[in-house]
Amino acid sequence: MAIQTRGTFTELYDNIDKSVFTILFDAQKELPKIWADLINVKTSDRKFERVMSVTGVGDIPEKGEGAPYTSSVIRPGWTKDFLHTEFGAMFEVTETALEDDQYDQLAQNGRWFMFASRVVEEKRAAILYNNGFTTEQSPDGVAIFSTAHVLKAGGTARNRLTTDADLSATSLEQALIDLQTETKVEAGQIVAPATSLTLVVAPANEFQAHRLINSQLRPGVADNDVNALKKRNWTVVVNPYLTDPDAWFVQDSNKKRHGMTSYTRVPISMQTPRTDPRTGNRLYPVRWRRSFGCSFWQGTFGSPGV
């Protein structure tokens, strides 16, 4: 257990001219929240949340005159449980350290804890993308971004290029083609793909992403071909928490139409400060509970690059 004493930050107690004493964080800006713009955030009031897809009916068969109707039933699809993870930490400071802090920095511990908490949320949300080609799974039991999603009624579909590729006009065009032909429900029918799209990239791909979707003519070639990618309604999100600089993702800009999901069981909160009756130390706890996962793979597409 780490306890804040005068000895752990002696500079707060030296007789230094305040005019030359600068706390670095005062001059820095926190990154704007990224993950909540990409992930559908819901609330939860229970131990865990269970999501389930539905398998509709298959294609309607031909019917001969006077022949009986073929009967069909609607069945359950895949299920996935969202187990909420609990996070928490505490700032413990001695009475003496608080009394003698001439720059009032220890009393501002809350902003440091809230800052650190928000960063952890960003990192946890990014795991859906960073591990989305391997260990993070959709309800069908395969990776979120896969070439072989299992449809409950039989067959497969995909939301990943058959051959992984770096971000380019060619690979992005192929992703849009795949979204139109591979976005299927559990019964196997093709459904409407996204028309408003979010392109998620690491900082190394930021400028390439903007060139691809904003150029009037096709980028990277010498001819006058129109940039057909520009016909779509695009938003670029640059996420510095992506660990693979080559990976890129396309998802529906309408968060209700893709399965990247987070449940808030308990939001981030600095709890009421407490005093240790044995020592007089002041205790400042921070705590929250949240889960992240993929409730369905449709509406998303990804490539790890090469």
Write structural notes for this entry:
It is a single chain. The protein is of the alpha+beta class and 306 residues long. The protein has 5 helices and 13 strands. It has helices at 35-38, 95-100, 109-130, 169-182, 206-214; strands at residues 40-43, 48-55, 75-83, 85-93, 149-150, 156-157, 196-201, 233-238, 248-252, 260-270, 274-275, 282-294, 300-303. Strands 1, 4, 10, 11 and 12 form a 5-stranded mixed beta sheet that branches. Strands 8-7-9-13 form a 4-stranded mixed beta sheet, covered by helices on one side. The radius of gyration is 26 Å and the shape is flat.
Number of strands: 13
Report the average pLDDT across residues.
91
What's the helical proportion of residues? 10-25%
Q: Give the overall form.
A: flat
Radius of gyration: 26 Å
The count of helical stretches stands at: 5
Q: Beta-strand level of the residues, as a percent range?
A: 25-35%
* Ends apart, CA distance between termini: 44 Å
| Unreliable stretches covering 5 or more consecutive residues | none
What string gives the helices and strands in order?
A: HEEEEHHEEHEHEEEEEE
The biggest sheet amounts to: 5 strands, mixed
Q: What is the SS-derived class?
A: alpha+beta
What's the structural blueprint in terms of helices and strands?
Blueprint lengths: L34 H4 L1 E4 L4 E8 L19 E9 L1 E9 L1 H6 L8 H22 L18 E2 L5 E2 L11 H14 L13 E6 L4 H9 L18 E6 L9 E5 L7 E11 L3 E2 L6 E13 L5 E4 L3
Parallel strand pairs: 1-10, 7-8
Antiparallel strand pairs: 2-3, 4-12, 5-6, 7-9, 9-13, 10-12, 11-12
